[in-house]
Amino acid sequence: MTSFDMNPDMIIEILSHSPASLVGKCRLLNKECNKRTYDSSFLKLNLQRTNSVSGYFLEFSERLRVHSAFVRDLGNIPSGSDEISLDFLPPGRVSIKACDASHGILLCVNDLPVKGRQPEYIVCKPTTKQYMILPKPKTRYFTIALGLMVIGSDPFRYKILRLSQLPGNENRRYSFSFTLVCEVFDSDSFAWKRLNNVELPEEDLLVPRAANPVASYGFLHWLTTSNNVFRFCFKTNSWSFFPVPENLASDDSLKLTRYDGKVGVISSRSKEGVDYQDLWVLERSFGDSWVNVKEIKSIGLEPVGFSSNDVVTLADLDGMCSYNMNNGKSQKLQIRAPKFFPSYYWTMSYFPFYSDYERVELNGRSNGLSTLSTRHKT
Q: pLDDT for 224-270, tens place per residue?
């Protein structure tokens, strides 16, 4: 491949016409390429030229019903595209559990309102209205966390990690205070495989409601209650822990995020009566060294994620907005959801989403299932 240093502007021009999967590979080759392709000006141009869309799935509950809405954050509306939603999925109580933010793939669970029926695990691509109902994992274990990652684009392949809680009588057989059952679904084999149990350090748990992990360089990351980061690698099917920045070890405001493709952590503080959020990023994917890269002046909203390296998405119970960290300008994001009433819902979840409109093979097998079958619709 031509070196990025020979003609960086030409490489960026070519990448602006390229799909997210190719852009992601090129980001690994050069730091300048990585930085420039996460700039909002490049991302907006790439969205237009590849007929793609960027934003967040917003999920909120009304009593026992779950609602979702898609919110665009970089402004592009692909020509001839319909409004993005989950209305094409089977009826029931469907909720989003995980996503691959770079490939537009969601993992949903349908808690069927029928006594004795087990929940359905569904992987889908909302822009093409494709979905696939997956084989059921060991649902007698209570699910603690789910993660999804696309690991190949040609052929299309993805994996799902499910961490679940052992029953109390089984958990006491282990020396650690809390043990998780670890299962991985591979679209290539179209089956779940149980791995060795995950043993959490004493008195440490995954943060409640930290549903969607942060994906970076082939790893999924969750924050724990003791401010460690739990990291799982799909390539080796192994897990490990590493600490947050030492000066944040006792901070109870931390939140994991992704910035420039790297794992980041956001902390809150006050200085001279003004509130700020600090952004720290992990310097290397295999290391545990953190660097403070951003100081964001608070405007009274909580960071949801970074649309680019210069734009952060902020939210509260009244709505969402994009905030440009370079010029301090903000823009309210439109939430098109007839059942969304500001301040009515106590909790909301946000799932980042970047997708084209190209169909994929969700069954993942060369001899796969019929693409038009009733229960395995792709």
A: 989 999 999 999 999 999 999 999 999 988 999 999 999 999 999 88
The answer as to whether 369 is a domain residue is: no
**Segment 104-114, tens digit of pLDDT:** 999 999 987 66
Per-residue exposure over 206-237, b if at least 16 CB sit within 10 Å of its own CB, e if not: bbeebbbbbbbeebbbbbbebbbbbbbebeee
Helix axes 40-49, 8-15, angle to 10 degrees: 50
Return d(Cα 335, Cα 39) in angstroms, integer. 24
Judge whether 275 and 268 are in contact, CB under 8 Å: yes
Q: Which amino acid is at 108?
A: C
Q: Say how many domains are in the chain.
A: 1
Element housing 293 (H / E): strand 290-297
pTM of the model: 0.88
Collapse the DSSP code of 8 into the 3-class scheme (helix H, G, I; strand E, B; otherwise coil) and give the result: helix
Q: Which of 333, 264, 269, 274 is nearest to 305 (CA)?
A: 264
Q: Is 148 exposed, middle or buried (0-12, 13-18, 19+ CB in 10 A)?
A: buried
CA–CA separation, 157 and 372 (whole Å)? 19
Which domain covers residue 333, as residue numbers? 52-355
| 120 and 92 Cβ atoms separated by less than 8 Å | yes
